[in-house]
Write a structure and sequence with these properties.
The protein is an alpha/beta fold and 217 residues long. The protein has one domain: Rossmann fold, CATH 3.40.50.2020. The chain has 6 helices and 14 strands. It has helices at residues 12-21, 29-48, 84-93, 142-155, 170-179, 208-213; strands spanning 2-5, 53-60, 63-70, 74-80, 98-108, 114-122, 130-134, 137-138, 160-164, 167-169, 184-188, 190-192, 194-195, 201-202. The longest helix is centred in the first third of the chain and has 20 residues, at 29-48. The protein is globular and about 65 Å long. It starts with a strand and ends with a helix.
Length: 217
């Protein structure tokens, strides 16, 4: 698995990540969702440079223009619910993409031990297509691995899979590098060193789902 950290370069992306982390700014859920959507758009633009293109004729009012446009079929997927604003940002740029959704969550067993439970998955045929999986936080890597395997089992093997995870932990990256196939790429904007005993990223940004959509029971 290849890892691309866009946060290593100076750009406005880092300002959006900083606002998402800020304990005072993130109290505004609309702003948090907007920032997450804008982050998705930046990732989508950079990711778009990696897919296949060919030159095609486009008829204008005055003649024919030859324009290089994408050839790959794209499927954008997210793990509900935290990834929804990120998904929308990616979809704003890949506007003809198909969509897939996975409802996955941690189910705790004893103490801090947990397994990933999937209750719902819907996806189109993804065989031979470019799959983009959006999840705001990459803590242990377990959720996105299980969701990826579920999508592949249901929809077929993608040509290449891009994981878009704005905030990632070192642990999760090392885990995915050991457990995912070579035709995968992780796109992130921040890599944090620490995980708590409950597998929360430190400094992280908190619960992205709650910050975007409010608390849950």
């Amino acid at each position: 698995m290849k890892v691309i950290n866009l946060g290593e370069s100076n750009s406005v992306l880092n300002s959006f990540i900083a606002q998402m982390r800020d304990i005072n700014i993130q109290k505004d859920s609309l702003r948090f969702r907007t920032n997450l959507e804008r982050v998705g758009e930046i990732f989508a633009y950079e990711l778009s440079k990696t897919i296949n293109y060919s030159v095609k004729d486009v008829t204008t009012p005055l003649g024919i223009a030859r324009v290089s446009t994408p050839d790959d079929g794209v499927v954008v997927s997210t793990i509900l619910r935290a990834g929804l604003p990120l998904h929308k940002g990616i979809l704003n740029f890949f506007d003809s993409a198909e969509n897939a959704f996975v409802a996955a969550y941690r189910k705790y067993d004893k103490g801090d031990d947990f397994h990933i439970n999937i209750e719902y998955c819907t996806c189109p045929d993804i065989k031979g297509k470019v799959l983009i999986m959006a999840d705001t936080m990459l803590a242990t890597g377990a959720s996105i691995q299980v969701a990826f395997e579920k999508l592949c089992n249901d929809g077929g093997a993608p040509k290449h899979t891009h994981f878009v995870c704005p905030v990632s932990s070192v642990y999760a990256i090392e885990y995915l590098q050991k457990n995912l196939p070579e035709n995968t790429t992780l796109w992130t904007a921040a890599i944090d060193e620490e995980l708590t005993s409950h597998s929360y990223i430190v400094p992280g940004l908190g619960d992205a789902g709650d910050l975007a959509f409010g608390g849950k029971l």
